[in-house]
Specification:
Elements: E1 3-7, H1 16-29, E2 34-38, H2 44-48, H3 66-71, E3 81-82, E4 88-91, H4 97-103, H5 113-119, E5 127-131, H6 138-146, E6 150-156, H7 165-178, E7 185-193, H8 198-210, E8 216-222, H9 225-229, H10 237-240, H11 245-270
Parallel strand pairs: 1-5, 1-6, 2-4, 2-5, 6-7, 7-8
Antiparallel strand pairs: 3-4
The protein binds adenosine-5'-diphosphate and magnesium ion.
Length: 271
């Protein structure tokens, strides 16, 4: 059965999608079967993986997205697409998903829809990674409710990095109390670190003060132009520029993620 994680932070541009796509791809390189679920109407994870699912008249009916899964309860299996990597699959998004935020409000089990949909495919994967939009609306709530193994929070090493994190943690607590008792913070990832600036160094210190030390990944992702170029070629950092500092960082982050997971499994096993 797959372990299910989401990557969330209601701030835009902090590295959520970059983390989902490159962590997911690295896990496939390590031999795991991975499903990425794109819950952002901007569909950046979808396009970063070289796919496109916009409604143009000719192909719309061929391309099921997470929108149909959430709103029309179409089986999620019908929406799963393959990528260039055999072990990496994706449930794509498209701009129509923006409407789901409102349409979900009137639907039964509105917070549980993603969780219910995923249940039928968990047996085929080792990891499910859910990318989320830059808001704390029903799409993000659905992602948190589905994530039994935790939420990964990217924090950009920039001015006002901690802004909004209290609200995110509050939302996580509410979801844990009412919808998903297993939800926990799996780790905070510091992204876009620039060692030349004092600001970046200060943010690292602040974040390590704000969270408990075991909650913050040791690996820090540097600002690296290759990471921002790869998506426009529909490639991950591991095919686009495997020797880059960005690739090294995401490989190290993924290894740390795997090591932590093993630790948790061991803990669970001895209970
Ligand atoms: P989010 O999903 O949180 O909105 P993204 O992952 O899309 O954030 O990142 C925002 C922008 O910054 C994108 O253009 C992305 O390519 C770029 N980016 C992300 N991480 C890095 C990094 N470590 N170094 C340089 N650019 C990055
Ligand atoms: Mg994104």
């Amino acid at each position: 059965m797959a372990l299910v994680y989401c990557v969330a932070n209601q701030k835009g541009g902090v590295g959520k999608t970059t983390t989902v796509v490159n962590l997911g791809d690295y896990l496939t390189i390590r031999g795991y079967n991975v499903l990425i679920v794109d819950m952002d109407p901007q569909a950046n994870a979808t396009s970063s993986l070289g796919l496109r699912c916009e409604e143009n008249k000719s192909s719309a009916h061929l391309c099921h997205t997470i929108y149909e899964v959430l709103i029309a309860e179409r089986p999620i299996g019908k929406a799963i697409r393959t990528t260039r990597r055999p072990r990496l699959h994706v449930v794509p998004s498209a701009s129509a998903l923006a409407g789901a935020e409102v349409e979900l409000v009137g639907l039964l089990g509105r917070e549980m829809r993603l969780r219910r949909a995923l249940a039928s495919v968990l047996q085929y994967y080792d990891y499910v990674l859910i990318d989320t939009p830059p808001s704390l609306g029903l799409l993000t709530i659905n992602a948190l409710t589905a994530s039994d193994d935790g939420v990964i929070i990217p924090v950009q090493c920039e001015y006002l990095a901690l802004e909004g994190l209290s609200r995110l943690l509050q939302t996580i607590n509410l979801v844990r109390q009412h919808l998903n008792p297993r939800l926990k913070v799996s780790g905070v990832v510091l992204t876009m670190y620039d060692g030349r600036t004092r600001l970046s160094q200060e943010v690292v210190q602040e974040v390590r003060k704000f969270f408990q030390s075991h909650e913050v990944f040791q690996t820090i992702v540097p600002r690296n132009v290759r990471l921002s170029e790869a998506p426009s070629f529909g490639e991950t950092i591991f095919t686009y520029s495997p020797e880059s500092a960005g690739a090294m960082a995401y490989a190290a982050l993924a290894e740390e993620f795997l090591a932590r997971g093993k630790h948790l499994v061991r803990e669970r096993g001895t209970l």
